[in-house]
Amino acid sequence: MSTAFFASYLIGLRDGLEAALVVTILLTVVSRSQRRDALVPLWTGVGLAVVAAAGLGAILTWVATSLLSGVRLEWFEAVTSLIAVGLVTWMIFWMRRSARTIKADLTGRLADALGMGPAAIAALAFVAVIREGVEMVLLVFASAQAVAQTAAPLAGVISGVASAVLLGWLMYAAVAKVNLGRLFTWTAVLLILVAAGIAKYAVHGFQTAGALPGGTDVAYDLSTTVEPTSWYGTLLAATVNLTPSATVLEIAVWTAYAVGVLILFFLPARRSPVVAAPVTSDRPEPA
């Protein structure tokens, strides 16, 4: 496995698994409802979501390679990187918070959609899958900017999605049992580190464009001792964007994001307080 596509493989695996989990829940509800007529609109919605996500990736790549250059390209890549960081952060905590209720929520929504018709079923499947697709595209696009422009990111995300689809099918067919909680926890940790690298790259872009100060305040410079094209240099740059040289602000943002989000992620989830019902008595009040 090439080190250049490891981050993209991880992104494709993580988001692909979340999408596969959603589709598996929907398919299970349809199967138990004995509504085979709902399969066509369901898969139509899934297919449209995949096409829309692929279209977004094509548009981002076309804009970056055909329309922009210089400072405008730095701005575009920095802004898309910030959007990707914000989206992946939201999705990680959303999945952590909603993991226990996602099956019940999707089941209720699909039950309503089954009564509304094929268009509602397709719309539900589209919305449930497209958020994973958009997150995946933005993350892969942003992480690919930090490494050489090759086909490795595309190959990585396709391999990750293919692995997720296979694993999802095995779970749906009851061939494999996977501890999804543990899997999502550790992939979330790796994604947080990837997102920290993307945030660092966004700072680099803004500094190059002149929007942030400190572009010449170098925190370290190991370019004379660390070969950027070496396997370890490529691995660090492709996964967490730790490059042979970086500015003070880049390292500060990387550290603050990684440490802060990891602490928040591993804090015990807050439970809603249970309000006790007032105790009533059948005995008459004393005179």
Number of helices: 9
Query: What is the general shape?
Result: elongated
- Radius of gyration in whole Å, from Cα? 23 Å
Order of helices and strands: HHHHHHHEHEH
Largest sheet: 2 strands, antiparallel
- Number of DSSP strands? 2
Tally of distinct domains: 1
Strand content: under 5%
Report the structural category: mainly alpha
Average pLDDT across residues? 80
Distance between the termini: 84 Å
* Helical fraction: over 70%
Runs with pLDDT <50, length 5+?
A: 272-287
Widest β-sheet, arrangement of strands: 1-2
Topology, element by element:
Layout: H1 6-32, H2 39-67, H3 70-98, H4 102-116, H5 118-144, H6 152-172, H7 180-208, E1 218-221, H8 231-239, E2 245-247, H9 248-266
Antiparallel strand pairs: 1-2
Transmembrane segments: 6-30, 42-63, 75-94, 106-130, 150-171, 183-203, 251-269
Main location: membrane
Protein name: Iron transporter
Describe the structure concisely for a colleague:
GO terms for molecular function: ferrous iron transmembrane transporter activity. With 287 residues, the chain is mainly α. The protein has helices at residues 6-32, 39-67, 70-98, 102-116, 118-144, 152-172, 180-208, 231-239, 248-266, and strands at residues 218-221, 245-247.
